[in-house]
Write a structure and sequence with these properties.
This protein has no helices and 9 strands. It has 118 residues and is mostly beta strands.
Amino acid sequence: MRIILFRDTAEPVEPWQPEPDRVVVAGAKGGTQNLYESGDGRVYAGVWHATRGAWRVIYDEMEYCHITKGRARLTSSSGEVTEVRAGDGFVIPNGFEGVWEVLEDMEKHYVIVLPLQV
């Protein structure tokens, strides 16, 4: 079993942009560089980057994020606002719904854990 280092960036970058029906503020695009996937396909880790914009999110998974560059605002569907910036680490729980807004072009390291399928 290997240790996953986020500085290992040998994997190709997969282009990313929010689905058109979720866009709140146009312009966001970027990429994902997945560095790890568990054998059962439930855990992922890697690097994600995006340009400014905003989109609606619905989290079925739990995600740990560590912002390495830039700044973002997460607004829950109940109106709670959380701003994050380079150096911040945080967890988005499964069930979170709201808006993810990139305020300054950003990069994050992520670890995603998908729910068990019953």
